[in-house]
Amino acid sequence: HELMLMGEQVLGGRGVRVSLSLGKGFAPFGTDDPMSRPIVRYPVNHHLAQILERAVVIAGVSAGPLILEGGLFNGDEPERPGDWPKLSRFGDSWSGRLTLMPVRHLELQGSYARVHSPEHRLGSGTDQQKWSVAARWDGEIDGAPLYGLAEWVRTSEADGFFILHGVLA
To answer: Rounded to an integer, what distance in angstroms lies between the CA atom of residue 127 and that of residue 64?
Structure first.
């Protein structure tokens, strides 16, 4: 489902890193691919909490505990597993994500996306505005491994006519 090429550069001696990624993959929105986390079942909110399988260009900057990412991508969602993104729609949608890692093992993220016509492959459908906030713990407590994730997502479509909320913990 993904084929990405990434380059990263450290700027100066301050530990600031910049990256550029492109290919077919996840837009910088919401939490990471559910297949990469320890779960019992695939979450039902994945269409609200991620923007997957798009032609995407992502720029990122990280400094200390902060990561800022922005991406341009095509809004059309694949209709079948073998579908490739419509490159003619590349750049009609965008997203941004801010991640904070204030202490070891704790990650906090907030993101926003404007997706043009995800439900109509040719681009004549309604647009979506998406928000995501999540907190994750992936570490140990008293020597025992512990993983926890809590996320809230909101998708507004057709200028607010449809509003979908999701919570996953």
So the answer is: 35
